[in-house]
């Protein structure tokens, strides 16, 4: 199939995405890296690159932004917390999403579309509105809060605040990202051939064994795709911690937003954005290497 | 296909024929009376298109980043000063402005814009503490001082139920006033002291919130909030309409309060200057100032319109403070202080101080 496409056709086909990526990804990234080395301007933005002082021209490029960012421990605190929340979110989504995707994939064909639709329905309303709904669910006046605090009270603990806590942030992150885990997993699980499972069962494998040795390795591409789709957006999330979190559950996205919208320190914001990009790239690389080394992907791709 | 082309072209032509000039206004959310929009659009034969912001700093950030196309911007006191120093504003042509004598003299010739070269006062909003009455009665605390958000003896009882603004200026001003300093102080020693005070208290605060704190107050999970008068005015109306069991109280602080003095300015690259002046003149008319005050609860500097308001509204201490000597407005920081305070603020907001 690939061989039939001529080189010129390949060029024509790949031009639009290249233009798109250059304008909307490459150039902004270069600007961001450049801004990270500029000095913050007197009234926000960046200071002029070349300043005339008397007869000499001073070039305003500096490493101070990196120094400020790296010498302050809050940045590392934010990075670690963002990582922590994203990993928990990904794991929770996987634990909840896998059985759900399995259920949809194994159900009768005529029900599958409806079940998938049910997964997608939350997207019909703005996710901010859904977060506000969670604020009511987790608020101290709600039934959920009353029940949990009642149970905790019996066990002899102090009542807790569900809203404005790290717990609320993780719940909302899981809630928002769950469909992104379910959809790729479903797409993968649906293609599985039931004969393989049957064969393993004929050969004496238990249900658990055939799941662990066949279904799971085969679904690894789906797990990885789903995890990436959940992990990467949640690490940069700033709306959720701002709405349902407290001062101790802010994430790195909040710092970036603050630097661009409130304190107007673009260079520091850019430094933070670079750190976040590197963080995501680093984690993705580690996962990719681990997946390749385990050989599971090749097995699944066959 | 042919049909589709004809349809598209006729749609474009229709749009062109219908095109009426636009006046672009960049203004805070919920800050313009509906009747004023109707009035203005009728008089100028143009359409008013509003763009909203939540926070004066957000507005500044957008304008500094090169945001343009606005004819009139609503800018708070220090924003006027910063924008004018950056050369982003037009000097106002006083001959084109009618009705400026409606504005109370005490709001004219402000510190941040001597001689009102760039700005016309629009409305002001006191900043104070709003609280949950029942809980404060039970705890026996009277929030008539900023100490309630800074002193551990109060904070221990209120832990996790306090919000303060997410803007550095207001929180620093509150801390400075509590310490008995000038809320606009640029003295590094004062600012350091204020920062230490904030650092010690911030672990007890639920969060920094300028946008949705009043919902928390109304839900009952927030007991004490640094608040804007317009938000509280609206929240009290909502509470009444929804028969909420939550009693929200309001108190000014004895150390003093800030008020955000909002102004109308015309940016240098405004596309439709004529409409901009039309808009300012519309706003200066007493009936429109009255509409603003009675619909949004904004405090208006328009003395003619003020007399039209109901005595109830006029005598509300937290909307129209009787003693303005303890109410301060912001002036702009010099660039060095601005960067310093912003760095402090980044650390304050992002560092988590766990307290038990």
Compact summary:
The complex is a heterodimer of chains A (302) and B (356). By secondary structure, chain A is mainly alpha-helical.
What descriptors fit this protein?
heterodimer; A: 302 residues; mainly alpha; MetI-like fold; two-stranded antiparallel sheet; 2 strands; globular; B: 356 residues; alpha/beta; D-Maltodextrin-Binding Protein, domain 2; 2 domains; 10-stranded mixed beta sheet; 16 helices; 10 strands
Write the layout of secondary structure elements.
The complex is a heterodimer of chains A (302) and B (356).
Chain A (H helix, E strand, L loop, with lengths): L6 H30 L13 E4 L2 E4 L4 H8 L1 H34 L2 H12 L6 H12 L4 H12 L11 H25 L3 H9 L4 H12 L1 H16 L3 H6 L7 H11 L3 H29 L1 H6 L1
Antiparallel strand pairs in A: 1-2
Chain B lengths: L1 H17 L3 E7 L5 H11 L2 E7 L2 H9 L7 E5 H9 L33 E14 H7 L7 H4 L1 H7 L3 E3 L3 H11 L9 H15 L4 E2 L4 H7 L4 E5 H13 L6 E4 L5 E9 L7 H12 L1 H11 L6 H4 L4 H4 L12 E2 L6 H16 L6
Overall description:
The complex is a heterodimer of chains A (302) and B (356). Chain A has 302 residues and is mainly α. Chain A has a single domain (68-301), classed as Orthogonal Bundle (MetI-like fold). Chain A has helices at 7-36, 64-71, 73-106, 109-120, 127-138, 143-154, 166-190, 194-202, 207-218, 220-235, 239-244, 252-262, 266-294, 296-301; strands at residues 50-53, 56-59. Chain A has a two-stranded antiparallel ribbon. In chain A, a hairpin with a 2-residue loop joins strand 1 (50-53) and strand 2 (56-59). In chain A, helix 3 (73-106) runs antiparallel to helix 10 (220-235) and helix 7 runs antiparallel to helix 10 (220-235). Chain A is globular and about 90 Å long. The two termini of chain A are 18 Å apart. In chain B, helix 2 (34-44) crosses helix 12 (273-284), helix 8 (168-178) crosses helix 9 and helix 9 runs parallel beside helix 16. Chain B folds into two domains: 2-123 and 261-321, Periplasmic binding protein-like II (D-Maltodextrin-Binding Protein, domain 2), CATH 3.40.190.10; 126-258 and 333-350, 3-Layer(aba) Sandwich (D-Maltodextrin-Binding Protein, domain 2). In chain B, strands 1, 2, 3, 4, 5, 6, 7, 8, 9 and 10 form a ten-stranded mixed sheet that branches. In chain B, helix 2 (34-44) links the parallel strand 1 and strand 2. By secondary structure, chain B is an alpha/beta fold. Chain A binds chain B through residues 40-45, 68, 72-75, 77-78, 135-136, 139-141, 161, 163-164, 242-243, 245-248, 250, 254-255, 258-265, 268, and chain B through 55, 57-58, 60-61, 64-65, 82, 85-86, 160, 166-168, 202-203, 205-208, 212, 215, 219-221, 335, 338-339, 342-343, 345-347, 349-354.
């Amino acid at each position: 199939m690939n061989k039939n496409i001529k080189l010129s056709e390949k060029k024509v086909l790949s031009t639009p995405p290249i233009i798109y990526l250059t304008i909307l990804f490459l150039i902004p990234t270069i600007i961001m890296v450049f801004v990270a080395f500029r000095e913050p301007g007197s009234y926000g933005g960046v200071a002029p690159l070349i300043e005339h002082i008397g007869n000499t021209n001073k070039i305003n490029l500096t490493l101070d932004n990196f120094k400020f960012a790296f010498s302050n421990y809050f940045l590392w605190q934010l990075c670690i917390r963002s990582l922590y929340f994203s990993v928990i979110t990904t794991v929770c989504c996987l634990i909840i999403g896998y059985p759900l995707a399995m259920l949809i994939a194994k159900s009768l064909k005529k029900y599958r579309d409806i079940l998938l639709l049910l997964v997608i329905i939350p997207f019909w309303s703005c996710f901010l509105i859904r977060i506000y709904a969670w604020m009511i669910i987790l608020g101290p006046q709600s039934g959920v809060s009353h029940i949990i605090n009642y149970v905790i009270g019996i066990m002899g603990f102090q009542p807790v605040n569900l809203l404005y806590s790290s717990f609320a942030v993780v719940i909302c992150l899981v809630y928002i990202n769950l469909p992104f885990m379910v959809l790729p997993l479903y797409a993968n699980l649906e293609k599985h051939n039931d004969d393989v499972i049957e064969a393993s069962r004929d050969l004496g494998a238990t249900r658990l064994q055939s799941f662990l040795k066949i279904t799971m390795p085969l679904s690894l591409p789906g797990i990885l795709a789903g995890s990436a789709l959940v992990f990467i957006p949640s690490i940069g999330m700033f709306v959720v911690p701002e709405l349902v979190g407290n001062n101790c559950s802010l994430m790195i996205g909040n710092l970036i937003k603050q630097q661009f919208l409130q304190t107007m320190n673009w260079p520091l914001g850019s430094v933070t954005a670079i750190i976040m990009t590197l963080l995501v790239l680093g984690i993705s690389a580690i996962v990719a290497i681990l997946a390749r080394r385990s050989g599971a992907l090749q097995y699944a791709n066959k | 296909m042919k049909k589709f082309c004809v349809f598209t072209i006729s749609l474009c032509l229709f749009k062109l024929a219908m095109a009426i000039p636009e006046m672009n206004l960049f203004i805070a959310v919920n800050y313009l009376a509906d009747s004023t929009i109707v009035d203005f659009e009728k008089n100028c034969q143009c359409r008013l298109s509003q763009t909203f912001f939540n926070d004066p700093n957000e507005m500044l950030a957008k304008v500094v980043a090169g945001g343009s196309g606005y004819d009139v911007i609503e800018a708070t006191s220090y924003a006027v000063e910063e924008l004018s120093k950056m050369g982003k504003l037009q000097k106002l042509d006083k001959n084109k402005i009618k009705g400026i004598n409606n504005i109370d003299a005490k709001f004219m010739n402000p510190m941040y814009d001597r001689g009102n070269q760039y700005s016309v006062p629009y409305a002001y909003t006191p900043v104070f503490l709003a609280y949950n009455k029942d809980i404060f009665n039970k705890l026996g605390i009277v929030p008539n001082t900023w100490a309630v958000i800074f002193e551990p003896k109060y904070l221990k009882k209120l832990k996790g139920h306090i919000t303060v603004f997410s803007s550095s200026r207001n929180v620093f001003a509150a801390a400075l006033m509590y310490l008995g300093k000038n809320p606009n102080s640029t003295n590094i020693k004062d600012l350091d002291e204020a920062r230490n005070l904030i650092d010690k208290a911030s672990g007890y605060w639920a969060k920094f919130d300028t946008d949705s704190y009043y919902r928390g107050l109304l839900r009952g999970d927030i007991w004490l909030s640094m608040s804007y008068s317009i938000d509280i005015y609206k929240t009290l109306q909502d509470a009444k309409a929804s028969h909420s069991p939550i009693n929200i109280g309001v108190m000014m602080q004895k150390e003093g309060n800030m008020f955000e003095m909002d102004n109308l300015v015309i940016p240098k690259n405004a596309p439709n200057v004529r409409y901009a002046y039309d808009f300012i003149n519309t706003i200066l008319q007493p009936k429109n100032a009255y509409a603003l005050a009675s619909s949004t609860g904004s405090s208006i500097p328009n003395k003619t319109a003020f007399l039209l308001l109901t005595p109830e509204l006029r005598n509300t201490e937290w909307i129209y403070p009787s003693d303005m000597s303890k109410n301060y407005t912001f002036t702009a920081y010099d660039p060095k202080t601005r960067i310093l305070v912003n760095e402090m603020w980044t650390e304050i907001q992002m560092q988590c101080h766990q307290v038990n």
